[in-house]
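Sanity check. The docking grid for flavin mononucleotide depends on where the pocket ends up, so I'm generating a full predicted complex first rather than guessing from homology. Inputs follow.
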Amino acid sequence: MSEAPEDLGAFLDDAWQLIGRGTVDSKSAANRPALATVGAEGPAVRTVVLRAADREAGTLDIHSHRLAGKVAELRAEPRAALHVWDAKRSLQMRLAGAATVHVEDAAARAAFDALPEHGRTIYAVSPEPAAEIDAPSAPAFDADPWAGFALIRLRLERIELLHLGRERHSRAVYERSSGWRGRWLVP
Ligand SMILES: Cc1cc2nc3c(=O)[nH]c(=O)nc-3n(C[C@H](O)[C@H](O)[C@H](O)COP(=O)(O)O)c2cc1C
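Predicted complex below; grid placement will be based on this.
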């Protein structure tokens, strides 16, 4: 999308297309969004991989280690946001909602089972994430990966899009509470 969007529905369709591509194409801008959480000491942000998206349900999936800081933060305060900047399309997406952490349930199992063997290794890290170690190579990957795996499912409440066009900038917001009906905003 390099043309300025004219239609709220088409603008949202384009965004979901990009999100969908992000789940399958590691080169897509939406593949590595920044995840923002509310930590005890204030905002926290980090890169994650977008693993799955369900437009019908309005959910986005991320995988993590169950002992990661973000998981503890989301358990304490589920409100979270993802940020994507697609330079090729001149499009910023701000995706906000509430996250549920799935551990040892059917949703986590389905996500874990869909991972290739090598994709599971990271969840076998030992000792746990953020533990202090003597050298960067010190951790082993000999724990049970399933015991470390967590699925983070973000249920979107709000999608905000900003397109930077040559002629004009276009900004729109879509909310679950209004059935994802969009509104144009001043950029
Ligand atoms: C390109 C890239 C992709 C990443 N993907 C993930 C991911 O999908 N899940 C994850 O937990 N951490 C991922 N990380 C690591 C996080 O950015 C972060 O450093 C780590 O998870 C610890 O964050 P936390 O202490 O806030 O939980 C990724 C980092 C980079 C640079």
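Relevant for the grid: The chain has a mean pLDDT of 96.
Also worth noting: The two ends are 17 Å apart (CA to CA).
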